[in-house]
Every structure is written in C-alpha cells, then in structure tokens.
C-alpha cells in the first residue's frame, strides 16, 4: 500500500483550522479560502516560500497578460532568492 504521509502532513493545518474557517462569511468566501490554501500548499510542494511566492505574484498579476497567466503558477515561477 502506498504511503500517504506527505499528503496527510500537507492537509494537517487545514484540518486543524477548520473550526476557525467555518465562518468564512459565505460559500464564496470558503471557495476563496480554498483557492488561497491550494496556492500556498502548491508553492510549498514546488520548493517556494509561500509568502514570497504570493508577494511576487500579487505585484505582477495586474500587468500580466491574461493569456499567459499560467506563467505565474508555482511550478513555472522562479523566485531565485527563495528557491530551496
């Protein structure tokens, strides 16, 4: 049977905070929280510091062409000083 410890470790903070996030305000608020948490965990899995990744993306995204938005995904973005 395959080992799923990495997956369980990745979702542990989400499971621990579930009660606090119960009151996201609305279904849309919950969806937004899920999207942000997905970006954070994906950044970690790709060896990026999540805070540095989000800071970099948020400074670039307004001027970034919509047809090239995939360039800002964690597995495509290189943040030299933050790369593990």
From TrEMBL:
Residues of the Transposase IS66 central domain: 2-31
UniProt protein name: Transposase
PANTHER family referenced in this protein's UniProt entry, alphabetically: BLL1576 PROTEIN (PTHR33678)
Organism (species): Xaviernesmea rhizosphaerae
Spans through the membrane: none
Coiled coil: none
Transposase IS66 C-terminal domain: residues covered: 38-75
InterPro entries, A to Z: IS66_C (IPR039552), Transposase-related (IPR052344), Transposase_IS66_central (IPR004291)
Pfam family, one: DDE_Tnp_IS66_C
